[in-house]
MarR family transcriptional regulator (Paenibacillus anaericanus), 152 residues
Amino acid sequence: MGDDTKAQRLLKAFNRLHRSEWNRMPLANCKGNEIRVLFYIKRGCAQDKRGVTISALSSMMEVTSPTVTPLIKGLESSGLVLRYNDQEDRRVVRVQLTESGEEVTQKAMKNFESRFTGLFDFLGEEKSDQLADLLEQVHQYKEMMLKAEQEK
């Protein structure tokens, strides 16, 4: 970045936030990505009481099924999810939260809400709105750069 101190400041701020592992919330010996999967399973089960399919789950998460499967297997071995074949189509695998999985998901949601309520209280309404606006603009910039890269 050469002598561009403003760009260096941005980079430093992004790196500090990344290193702080703000998005990590270890709970019940689960990693952040496992908690994320539990949230998606809960959302999928709200749409279909039979459980969410692996393909629907991977679609919601915008990843491939082979990425989701090991996470589901780990959560299953921890007793947080139940994985089973669909009654109507045995080729389809469905997943539901167990009672323990539901408890962990609820605790994680409370933890998540507490973090952002705390941040809002710390920043105040005006700065929280500014931060949300800026993060939306960062996302727009990232999408614009990705699109430009794909068009090359």
User: Anything to note?
Assistant: The chain has a mean pLDDT of 90. The chain has one domain: 25-151.
